[in-house]
């Protein structure tokens, strides 16, 4: 099926796709995966934003999707280069959590709207209702893995990511782990790095027309947890945002995809603009 915002399709230049292997056979898999997500965000002219950002998140010990690049051939003809991103689904949860059968939700709008992404036959939503109802630090600590959330927010702040949980965006999931509570899971990281100024404030920044970030506000309003948040930022800078490592990855991955980018007949920008990106 086609992916992305349908209102953007007419000017998108290159369609984004999701390939599912378990639609007919529920146990269907391809190399252990239920889905392939082929992403070609117009702003991701380097084809590397998601790849680099997700690598940083994994480097600091967070559960984050894997990503690489993929050439897509349709009926024998080269259609273009994509970022191939692991979908956050039951296979992802099984790989990253000791208890993978909890409820998975994606942020869907204002007023803390959530869309259930698994266990659809279970209509019990008391877990997400308890998370939404949390207005104090003790109430939030009872239902959320705040230590994990602080690290995820700090990693987004360092990059920075202008459309995720830290910035008041919609691009993230929460997973209710029976052992640790709700964990924040990153998603759609093409709005990273130079999409925001390098000196964007890691504490007070909010995206224009933000969707709110009440859990962040509750945690960082507490002096003890605010100190922990600053420590998490320092940890990400030391263990994740290593300039020499990022530059090496960019050089290596850019060389991997150079020919595929140059030959891509449907990219909505020039090869020169790719190299600048």
Protein described:
This protein is an alpha+beta fold. It contains ten helices and nine strands. The strands form two sheets. It has a five-stranded antiparallel sheet. A hairpin with a 3-residue loop joins strand 8 (172-177) and strand 9. 35% of the residues are buried.
Concise overview:
By secondary structure, the chain is α+β, with helices and mostly antiparallel strands. It has helices at residues 9-12, 49-59, 90-96, 126-133, 137-143, 146-158, 214-221, 223-239, 243-263, 271-276, and strands spanning 2-3, 16-20, 35-39, 67-74, 77-85, 104-109, 113-116, 172-177, 181-186. The strands form 2 sheets. The protein has a 5-stranded antiparallel β-sheet. Strands 7-6-8-9 form a 4-stranded antiparallel β-sheet.
What are its keywords?
277 residues; 4-stranded antiparallel beta sheet; alpha+beta; globular; 18% strand
The end-to-end span amounts to 28 Å
- Helical fraction equals 25-40%
Q: What class do helices, strands and sheet pairing give?
A: alpha+beta
Total count of helical runs of at least 4 residues: 10
Mean pLDDT: 94
Strand order of the largest sheet: 1-2-3-5-4
Q: Can you write the helix and strand succession as a string?
A: EHEEHEEHEEHHHEEHHHH
Approximate strand percentage: 15-25%
Largest sheet: 5 strands, antiparallel
C-alpha Rg (nearest Å):
19 Å
Shape assignment: globular
Instruction: Give the number of DSSP strands.
Output: 9
Q: Residue ranges: pLDDT <50 for 5 or more in a row? A: none
